[in-house]
Design goal:
By secondary structure, this protein is of the alpha/beta class. It folds into two domains: 2-224 and 409-430, Rossmann fold (3-Layer(aba) Sandwich); 231-407, 3-Layer(aba) Sandwich (Rossmann fold), CATH 3.40.50.2000. The protein has 17 helices and 14 strands. The strands form three sheets. Strands 2-1-3-4-7-8 form a six-stranded parallel sheet, sandwiched between helices. A hairpin with a 2-residue loop joins strand 5 (145-146) and strand 6. Helix 10 packs across helix 15 (375-386). The protein is globular. The relative contact order is 0.10.
Length: 431
């Protein structure tokens, strides 16, 4: 099968790009041809198809890195292209005409590529499958989280994003985003998407609540693991839990991720003399991150450390140093990579009981849960784990590996994708 994969950038950046390169490799290792389509950025990975990539107006992916140097004329062009990018349409149409793929698999496109990508495939009668790894189709902030709490108001009325200034706390930018969404809705672009793939059942159900997408063909396909566990480490026992437990947080250091809840729980545990340590692994170079670190510094304990960012190739080795990892999210986290990576290493995950996290982790079996937004509940969970026997701990650890290898099996992922692809191809050709 020949597959065109569309994503707004073609270099390693975060979770979506991890999936991009992993699924590309998975297809190719099983005899399929994969053709990428993206915007052209200086740090893109090499590709024989890069001549087809769309050349953006600025080389920076994040405009705020160099916004003062962007002319007013270019800013207007960028906004115009966010509604509908004719250059993207032409570039992708050229690629599709030359390569004649069986299906187009879209990961993330956003305003960088615009919904013109769906028109390009539709005009040539090529089926399109869209994978949803966030809430961008419905929520201006992508997270259903605003002003410190869960917010799903835009499921019923998108104009709420303007009233709440959801885009960079700017009324103007929020209104422009609303107009883009309204424009796409009027064009019924969703009718040119043959199937939607969603890693989380919770995410799927939330998006299907909207009038715009309630009639879409949705399929639940969990994210897959691309690496095999290292057998040399599976039987390497961690130090006794009685000597104290080691926790880690791995991911974005932002308010929606619930780091303040975790820090408060840790401080209370330490005050009670609990033998527990926490390492926070991630970029804390933000106002929220700096304020969080200041709070920890004022407390003056060496049991909580900010380690900063680590190389993606070191994640699995680093995780082996901990008894548990924590995902204290306040928002409807959509199957985070840290949960997958931790489970694969036999490191049980402590999660907030919300959204996909509650869907994935069964308390006491393959991890542990605490009440959403409650630092007291998280504190109680941590204290209870200090007294967890080694036999019980290793049973949960083994269950983590068993569960994640079953739930996120790459061969199952491939079979599910190909089954969906074949279905939309057959439906398209029979019309």
């Amino acid at each position: 099968m020949k597959i065109v994969i569309v994503h707004y950038r073609y270099y390693h950046g975060s979770g979506p790009e991890t999936y991009l390169f992993n699924v590309k490799r998975l297809f190719e290792n099983n005899g399929h041809t994969v053709i990428p389509f993206s915007a052209s950025y200086p740090n893109n990975e090499p590709s024989p198809y890069s001549e087809y990539f769309y050349k953006p107006i600025v080389d920076k992916f994040h405009l705020n890195e160099n916004k003062n140097s962007i002319s007013v004329t270019d800013q207007i062009k960028i906004v115009k292209n966010s509604f509908y990018n004719k250059d993207v349409f032409k570039k992708l149409t050229g690629l599709l005409n030359d390569e004649r793929p069986d299906v187009v698999y879209v990961l993330q496109y956003g305003t960088k590529l615009s919904t013109s990508i769906f028109d390009a495939a539709y005009s040539l009668n090529i089926p399109v499958v869209l994978r949803l790894s966030d809430f961008n189709l419905v929520c201006a902030k992508n997270t259903f989280f605003n002003k410190g709490q869960i917010c799903t108001k835009c499921i019923d009325n998108r104009f709420n994003s303007v009233m709440d200034k959801c885009v960079h706390d700017s009324l103007t930018q929020s209104f422009v985003y609303f107009l883009i969404q309204k424009f796409n809705h009027i064009r019924h672009f969703q009718n040119k998407i043959d199937a939607f793939i969603v890693p989380s059942v919770n995410t799927m159900n939330l998006i299907k609540k909207t009038d715009q997408f309630k009639h879409g063909n949705f399929y639940h396909v969990p994210t897959f693991i691309s690496k095999e566990e290292d057998q040399r480490f599976l039987n390497k026992k961690k130090s006794s839990l009685n000597a104290g437990i080691r926790l880690c947080y791995l991911g974005r250091v932002s308010e929606d991720k619930g780091l303040d809840i975790l820090i408060n729980a840790m401080i209370n545990c330490i005050k009670k003399g609990i033998k527990v340590e926490l390492d926070i692994i991630g970029d804390f170079n933000s106002d929220f991150g700096f304020n969080l670190k200041k709070e920890v510094d004022r407390f003056g304990s060496k049991q909580i450390k900010f380690l900063g960012v680590i190389d993606s190739n070191e994640v699995n080795i680093t995780l082996r140093n901990y008894h548990f990892s924590v995902v204290p999210s306040k928002w409807y986290d959509n199957m985070p990579n840290s949960l997958i990576e931790s489970s694969l290493e036999g490191v049980p995950v402590i999660v907030s009981k919300i959204g996909s996290l509650e869907e994935l982790i069964q308390n006491g079996y393959n991890g542990f849960t605490f009440e959403h937004l409650s630092s007291k509940s998280l504190e109680a969970t941590i204290i209870s784990l200090v007294d967890l026997g080694e036999k019980e701990y290793y049973k949960v650890s083994e269950n983590c590996i068993k569960w994640i290898r079953e739930y996120c099996d790459k061969e199952k992922h491939l079979k599910r994708l190909l089954k969906i692809f074949k279905r939309v191809i057959n439906e398209k050709t029979s019309k």
